[in-house]
Amino acid sequence: MSWQVRVVHSTGYRYDLPAAQSFNEVRLTPRTDHHQDVLFSRIDTTPASRLFRYTDYWGTSVTSFDLHAPHSELKVVAYSVVDTADERAPVHESTWRSLRASDVIDQHGEFLQPTRYTPRDSELLAVSRELRKGCDPADAVLAATNWVHEQLTYRPGSTGVHSSAGDAWRAREGVCQDYAHITLVLLRAMGIPARYVSGYLHTKPDAELGQVVRAESHAWVEAWTGGWWAHDPTNAIPVGQRHVWVALGRDYADVAPLKGIYSGSGASGLDVSVEMCRLA
After folding, report:
1. Where are the domains of the chain?
2. Is there a contact between 198 and 238 (Cβ–Cβ < 8 Å)?
3. 254: which residues sit within 8 A by CB, 6+ positions away?
4. Per-residue pLDDT reduced to its tens digit, 71-98
5. Is 195 exposed, middle or buried (0-12, 13-18, 19+ CB in 10 A)?
6. Which pTM does this prediction carry?
């Protein structure tokens, strides 16, 4: 069964002293692909600005805008309505040997390499060897996501937006970003191409139609085992109709919801809120 979901994502910045100008890019527009169909999307800014939209290297829709008048606040609100897809079964088309083929490595090599957020880790490398024993690649993905879910404690505030997989693993706690990064380290160490996905998760499976749920941005992983498919290590569940996809990349750095720079001497404060509502 598929869902129709409305998402309202609000981000507000406050400056102690007015910012003279700012330059921003936003990744808040859901994707239209085989997972979901975007029926409506809009991004508003306060102060109002002219918006420019383009698709980045990873296929994510990016909205950019500049502000050239002094402003003490900046608010960005993204509205979207999305038809989401039913849950997909793991893809069991590849073998360990086929994953080492030159064409696979050539096509998906960027999702096999370590990054700043997903560096090589000797302890996690040893874990990856144990998890893949007796598994085909698709089953190894499930073993890795379930293992991360069991090993970590979900604790907001225990890590920061710049924390790496190694930071979260040493702490044995974190948030969805950390669960995804550690899972990526394990899968890439096995030789499975894997990428970071950002989006949203409706947190109430039995929500009534029209019920508004306060939510947060969410992250999970997508693995290639003869075809791309996704799993949510934070909750140890398949990715399906309660998930709304927004951006893809190698790690969080490729999908950050809002990036920007401003000129001015005042520090900034940040407020973020996400509301989701099942419409059908």
Report:
1. 4-85+256-278, 96-254
2. no
3. 58, 60, 196, 247, 248
4. 999 999 999 999 999 888 999 999 999 9
5. buried
6. 0.96
